[in-house]
Amino acid sequence: MVASSRVAPPAFVPGLLFVAGVTVVVEILARVGLLSSYFAPPTAIVAALAQGLANGDITSQVGMTLMTFAEGLVLASVLAVVLGVLMGAIPVVYDALKMIVEFLRPIPSVAMIPLAILFLGLGAPMRVAVIAYASFWPLLISTLYGVRAVDPVALDTARNFGVPPVEALYRVTLPAALVSIATGLRVSASIALVVTVTTELVAGNSGLGFYVSQMEQASRLPSMYAGILLTGVLGYVINLIFFTLERKIVFWSPSARGTVQ
Amino acid sequence: MRNASLPAKRLYWGTPLQRNLLGVAVVVLVLGAWELLARAKASIYLPPVSAIATTFVHEWFSPQFGEHALPSLMRMLAGYAIASVLGVALGVLIGAYRPLFRLLDPFLQFLRAIPPSAIIPVGILLIGIGDAMKIVVICFGAFWPILVNAADGARNVPGERLDTARIFGVSPTDQLLSVTFPSALPGIFAGLRTGLSIAFIMIVVSEMIGSTNGLGYYILQAQRTFAIPEMYGGIVLLAILGYTLNAGFLALEHRVLAWHHGQSARAV
């Protein structure tokens, strides 16, 4: 190949070139008028995005979205980890709750929106409740499996050295289950963002999803696409953050397990 | 894995029957407490379980099922089927050819990060609020996890399998169909399962935003008209459908991937 004598370009270069190429093609097609008028040229979208960010229109909505997202996710995380550890570590608790979990888990989270509206109205608490409900399940299940998969030898060793059961829970079980908890947290975080935008879209009075649907109704298409673009950016960044977090935790896990042998 | 053959004693108590009975007892207890609370008029938003059950039977063992539940299921299956075929075909291709993967990966990662419900407004503008919009939105939501998992599966095919095929002179097309594709099946099924639950969520959302029938429309409308037992009944129906779809999918996966499970068991 031609490039064999040169330094190979970084792996992401062709990918970025492709993204740039698609953007240019869409821009040209939209400007020439070959695309439906419901598409907006990328430059117009970027301009709308810059304007919205500068005058605070979009910025405040992003803040609202991130706030409800974080509240819902934190609420779900605390509940899911506590309950997951209890169910994983204590067989009676597991057997008592498994039927209820099996019944509630398949309900699509968005079906809870009308129920949440009844009890909590249309504001942010309703959204936080639905987000927490949706992101609770993956984390509960992965915490549960993580705790159940803890090496019995490690627990026996702790018991032999006279570590009390409660202390063993947070000194042996929890650290070992952390890998699985981190994976669950990443899945929960991406679900939480999807549900945040969805509830804002269906029954919102603020947030990025609300902004997108408002712009659609006002036929301000570049602003609508700017909002959608931003949801994608948020999704990407949030996934990246939790993925990095997970990798950091997985990094120490094999060595921790190694000391057990 | 070391302890896979030793049943960890601490995980069990009592007989399996006792353990299942405890689970059932807790469900009965919760439903009983709900019934009592509701009869004591704790909240107008909390109808008795018995009323919900009566409404459920009355509403759904009737032509109503054809009016609201069937359209939802048909749209979902249509969108999901299209997403599955496209996602698996494109995913295996992208995963099998590394340059293609490098070219498309950032683009796909970004599109995949968009919460699928955010494109509903675009769908409404471009296609209107009919069945086609819902099918497109469901398809968009289910497509990404299927594509990404299929690509990952195809990318991580053990090299010796492909080398063996090449040594025996298997043509590239046959390699793709009879080596890469079967090897990627576990990954493909992981994606198909995620895609199914997303499709199920998207059908409810798209019917809540722009529709005159379907289950999403039904439960939101029931809430708006304060038909409270009907709303709960609709949610119960969604739970049953969700459970059935998932169970059906797991059964299918178990059958199709039987060879894989057997193989990994032997490997351990």
Which SSEs are present, and which pair or pack?
The complex is a heterodimer of chains A (261) and B (268).
Chain A lengths: L12 H20 L9 H14 L1 H33 L1 H14 L7 H9 L3 H25 L3 H9 L4 H39 L4 H10 L3 H38 L3
Helix pairs in contact in A: 2-10, 3-4, 3-6, 3-8, 3-9, 5-6, 6-8, 7-8, 8-9, 8-10, 9-10
Chain B lengths: L15 H24 L9 H12 L3 H33 L1 H16 L6 H8 L3 H25 L3 H9 L4 H38 L5 H10 L3 H29 L1 H10 L1
Structural notes for this entry:
The complex is a heterodimer of chains A (261) and B (268). With 261 residues, chain A is mainly α. In chain A, 81% of the residues lie in helices and 0% in strands. In chain A, helix 5 (112-120) crosses helix 6 and helix 8 packs antiparallel against helix 10 (221-258). The longest helix of chain A is centred in the last third of the chain and has 39 residues, at 165-203. The N and C termini of chain A lie far apart (49 Å). Mean pLDDT of chain A is 86; it is low at 1-5 and 255-261. With 268 residues, chain B is mainly alpha-helical. Chain B folds into 2 domains: 1-46, no CATH class; 49-267, Orthogonal Bundle (MetI-like fold). Chain B is built from 11 helices and no strands. Chain B has helices spanning 16-39, 49-60, 64-96, 98-113, 120-127, 131-155, 159-167, 172-209, 215-224, 228-256, 258-267. In chain B, helix 3 packs across helix 9 and helix 5 packs across helix 6 (131-155). Chain B is globular. The model of chain B is unreliable at 1-9 (pLDDT under 50). At the A-B interface, helix 1, helix 4, helix 5, helix 7 and helix 8 of A face helix 1, helix 4, helix 5, helix 8 and helix 9 of B.
